[in-house]
Amino acid sequence: MNRIVLIGNGFDLAHGLKTSYADFINWYWEQWRDKLISCHSPHAHDELCTLSLDLEETRDRKETWHSLLNSHMHSFQSMAGMKFYDYLKSYGVIIKTFTPLLEAIMHDVKHQNWVDIERIYYRLLCDSLKENSKVSPSELNTQLAVLTEKLTEYLKYVEGNNEIKGNLNDAIIRKLYSPINPNEIAICASQQKRDWIEQLKKADPDLLYYKLSDYEKQYKLLKYYIPDSIEKIKKDEKVIDQDFQLVSELFLPEQVMIVNFNYTHIADTYIQDNQYNHTFSINHIHGELESPQSIIFGYGDELDKHYKELEELNDNEYLNNIKSIKYLEATNYRNLLNFIESAPFQIYIMGHSCGNSDRTLLNTLFEHENCISIKPFYYQKEDSSDNYTEIAQNISRNFKDKQALRDKVVPKDYCEPLPQASAN
């Protein structure tokens, strides 16, 4: 049996990185703050918006952003992100001209305290089909390309200023390397579980329960996870029947693929310099910061009712940022397909929301006949509430077969919180 670990933005957040889209938008406005403080003109713009002083409001003085911010509003210089934007807005001396994509993003940030840029992009792309649409698909694609470039710049900055190497979370290491709990295996995979146990029982006891030739490494793994249970097991000793039965119930995955939906490399640090990293691989399914051309930033929901309508338009502008097509530009997706075809697998979800922007890929994984279990690690809030139900709701949208949903998703009783940075 194998394991797939889906790594999403919550994984980076658990390590203290400010990598949410809301963090990115805050940074964007801080860049504007620094730009306006040194701008000797009443007008400033980038590819996403234009900010102009309302000279009538300022009594037609020859005001510039530099003179205004430095002479009248010194507090601007220390204001961060959205606080700077809000203060400008309340002061009433600017005219804002936003592109439709940035306007929609700002609306979501202000009203929901979070933002999903990919979802907003797809919504506007579908809206562009309407006669009264304010934006064309080509304009939206240009705006998304600008955002992708700025997001890449921001994430490079965040990753470059983080000392994650010395802050690996030991609790997360234990989860990544942990055995598969038989109670977490779906009922529909009962035969696969029985076949696996029979295979273990037939194995040479010196190998304990699966195809590792290095007995010492296998022993160390077991001792790491269940030290009290196997204290009697020593190197080069034969395992008595009751111990073998105990061990056979603990299924260490033969291979683990970490599927990283982030663009950062925090997940990589958990398999580097590790004595068991021959068992692990990492798949940067959406590309890496070092190769901007590899970045996949768009939408991936072929199950959506509007997607077929976009396909039938015979206009490739509507498909430029659809993930299913972008996956064809690299081998990452094919490597994932090869992995899920190779053996039964359990899925761990660590910090991935399982939202609709990745629904095509997630549906392929979740409903695959080799998928024996889907275990979400939820976020435990300070007030002891958590988001398990929200993750489960999102997972449900990735299933067409709801009976399989109820069988494969691990009940909350067997799930646990994703360890946070403070747990180190």
For the largest beta-sheet, the strand count, sense and barrel status come to: 5 strands, parallel
Strand order of the largest sheet: 6-5-1-7-8
Poorly predicted regions: 204-220, 223-249
In DSSP terms (H or I, runs of 4 or more residues), the helix count works out at 17
What's the helix-strand series?
Answer: EHHEEHHEHHHHHHHEEHHHEHEHH
N- and C-termini, Cα separation: 29 Å
Structural class: alpha/beta
Percentage of β-strand residues? 5-15%
**Tell me, what's the shape?**
elongated
Rounded radius of gyration (Å): 26 Å
Count structural domains: 3
Give the rounded overall mean pLDDT: 83
Name a few traits of the molecule.
424 residues, alpha/beta, 3 domains, five-stranded parallel β-sheet, three-stranded antiparallel β-sheet, 17 helices
Briefly say what this structure is.
By secondary structure, the chain is an alpha/beta fold. It is 40% helix and 10% strand.
Describe this structure in words.
The protein is α/β, with parallel strands linked by helices. It has 3 domains: 2-16 and 163-178 and 253-423, no CATH class; 21-55 and 62-113, no CATH class; 182-248, no CATH class. It has 17 helices and 8 strands. It has a 5-stranded parallel beta sheet with strand order 6-5-1-7-8. A 3-stranded antiparallel beta sheet has the order 2-3-4. Helix 5 crosses helix 6 (117-127). The longest helix has 24 residues, at 137-160.
